[in-house]
Amino acid sequence: MGKRVAVVLAGCGVYDGSEIHESSAVLVHLSREGAQAEVYAPDVDQMHVVDHVKGQPTQEKRNVLVESARIARGNIKDLAKLDVKGLDALIIPGGFGVAKNLSTWATQGKNCIVSKEVEDVLKAFHTAKKPIGLCCISPVLAAKIFPGCELTVGHDTECEKWPYAKTAETMKELGCKHVNKHVTEIHVDVKNKLVTTSAFMCNAPIHEIYDGIGKMVKEVVRLA
Question: Which Gene3D superfamilies does its entry note (predicted)?
Fold first, then answer.
């Protein structure tokens, strides 16, 4: 029987939900590793809905669980029903939904609140010493909840290749150790069993993002 890995989504689409390519890469690499993905999302309204053509918010209302079900092909459960006892690891892909629907990072930065359901799940895996994989913006959840942990969101100096590098600085202000890594690399915090990679925090070819996520998934499964 392969490892059972919880994958927590935050909606569907980079600007207001989970990043679709990252989510798909996680599911593909879990399958390749012989692991069974169990997909969850919170049953809450999105902070807002963004028109992905215009990049502008609309007046629509959408539900995080309902939208995440698009990525999961309907095979999804309410995050409130997650039971850490039957699972071996946790992975949270990136996308602005992490900073908008799973936390208030998008509007409050280091002063954000992580939603209680998400915080409880992260703490449950951490307490059980089960590995947690995070990519793109999702390492900010660990930065907020696990003071002193080691993470990467890529590089800490802003440039064309690393447009979101200020995130690393904010994580340092929370007392975390940020480790600069290329998009195809991962960082492993051995003590906290956290595996992180930058994914779309980097302006890189999509296959490099895919490869970095693959290394993250492989290490999470190995640690499980």
Answer: 3.40.50.880
Q: Does residue 36 sit in helix, strand or coil?
A: strand
Question: b vs e for 157-176, b when ≥16 Cβ sit within 10 Å of the residue's Cβ?
Answer: eeeeebebbebbebbeebeb
Q: Cβ distance 2 to 89 under 8 Å?
A: no
Residues with a catalytic annotation lie at 136
- What does the H/E/C string look like for 116-163? HHHHHHHHHHHHCCCCEEEECCCHHHHHHHCCCCEECCCCCCCCCCCC
What pTM does this model have?
Answer: 0.98
* Residue 70 buriedness (CB in 10 A; 0-12 / 13-18 / 19+): middle
| Listed residue (215, 189, 219, 213) closest to 201, CA to CA | 213
pLDDT digits (tens, 9 = 90+) for 33-89: 999 999 999 999 999 999 999 999 999 999 999 999 999 999 999 999 999 999 999
